[in-house]
Amino acid sequence: MATSSPHPISPYPIGTPGKPWADAEKAQWRSRQARKRSYETDVLGKVARLRERFDAVEYGHLDYPPDRYPLLALKSRAWREDLPGALVTGGVHGYETSGVRGALRFVDEHMADYEGRANLIVAPCVSPWAYERINRWNADAIDPNRSFRSDSPARESAALMRLVAPLSGRILVHIDLHETTDTDESEFRPALAARDGKVFEPGEIPDGFYLVGDEENPQPEFQRAIIAAVAEVTHIAPADARNEIIGSPMVAPGVINYPLKRLGLCAGITDAKYKTTTEVYPDSPRATSEQCDAAQVAAVRAAIDFALARR
Q1: Would you say residue 1 has pLDDT above 60?
Q2: Where do the record's region annotations for Disordered lie (predicted)?
Q3: Tens digits of per-residue pLDDT, 255-281?
Q4: Domain-wise residue ranges, the chain
Q5: Are 89 and 127 in contact (CB under 8 A)?
Q6: Which of 49, 110, 127, 295 could anchor a disulfide with 94, C-beta 3.0 to 4.6 Å?
Q7: What's 3-309's CATH class?
């Protein structure tokens, strides 16, 4: 069942209710964001070890003084122009931990299985500043996962689009790894409402794994195959009393659809036939962090296997 999540009764501590943030409020918000973990240790260190088996490319860097972050992706070493492409992205929202860990674990344990069958490219942590601060936004108080468009204000999103642009027509499948957490209701949606000068309206957090497909190209069999694979690892989120998940109609068990490109979502950055966003619920009493990471890996494998079987 969907779960009600804690939400603040008092106004968000930054800004004036009903008034969008200006630069001063964004600076105040930024000053509250402390580094809690290390991108260098958790991501760059693992990428360095994976370089022994796969090609690593630096596709950009982020300068948020005094911090500077190289943006890295891992690619199949036996790259062939005649093979279909598979794109895996994680950490678009830096606080969604299993997306980062799941992407790196997939590379370590399974990426070599696809050599000679597909060209894989994995960007495991798209938003390193947010990863270190366990936040949804980047340092400019911008949500990268609403910013994948040609005039993107998010440097993280723009860099990934530049990496993918030359490959867009050759990507068969793209899976973008995310989480839905209790802090969506306790922190990030209230912050969004405050930033935009709107009223925060509490919602519900789905208890379990679900997928967000493409409203314009839903591919229901593809989504069902991923759900079936993940169900062997962890539980699938049911619909709420309105037969919805996070306010959208459930079109199949554990599946909703969004207009990916129109919303500027990462899963919409290519014209891949098969695309989806995963959503793991790490705060569930029924799931461990190991299950969350394993669910992301299972989803990636099922997505690529389905697409290659039907190319």
Answers
A1: no
A2: 1-23
A3: 999 999 999 999 999 999 999 999 999
A4: 3-309
A5: no
A6: 127
A7: alpha beta
Instruction: Indicate yes or no: pTM above 0.85.
Output: yes
> Token pair for residue 53?
């088996």
